[in-house]
Amino acid sequence: MNDKVDKLVIFLAKRDGIDKLVKTFQYTSKLVHWHAEATHPDIAGRAKRWEVASGLSRKAFRSGRFLTGFNGLRRSPGSTPTLRFLAVLANAGEMIYFFFDHFLWLSRVGTLDPKLATKMSFISAFGESFGYIFFIISDFIVIREGVEAEKKLAGSKGETEDAKQSIRKIRADRVMRLMAVAANVADLIIGLADIEPNPFCNHAVTLGISGLVSAWAGWYRNWPS
User: Fold this and answer.
1) Smallest Cα–Cα separation from 138: which of 197, 210, 79, 55?
2) Per residue in 37-60, pLDDT tens?
3) Domain ranges, ordered by start, for the chain
């Protein structure tokens, strides 16, 4: 029990940990609003206010986050030229997303002209979606390389302890990357709802489930080991 509490404290001490918790609030309240709108308008109204407050809070928590993408651009991590190139594209999109998200937040709280919100939302969502596409491609490439490496280890070294340890590392990395893919696909759907509104992406259930998938996948990835 104490170990779980310690891990929760460590998780919530991280900016990403707080973000995933508030994101859970945001998209849970979106689903509650959708479910209660017709039958319990008072509850639906409270849920909507909770959703809006959570969304604005997350934008405040992400102040300066675009520097993470800038740092990623500077380092351009990757074991091959292809992965380095994809990393540049992915981090560039993420940097645009977080940078223009500042102006979207300021527009929605009334510091800047509220009319700017639509344009800032589009630019931010476009950068976000652009980056996620290349993050997803990169993760699938690394997952495929990991599967091939695992087969070689199993075939050439048999049941040696070194081989088993290497295989465990590959499998653990694969799980984390699959979680990243799940989060990025979910966030891509949310981004597409801003770029090109459509009945599927903009439906409250689609957005709610996508937001929770993203939040919980991120929760899993950031939870202390």
Assistant:
1) 79
2) 999 999 999 999 999 999 999 998
3) 2-222
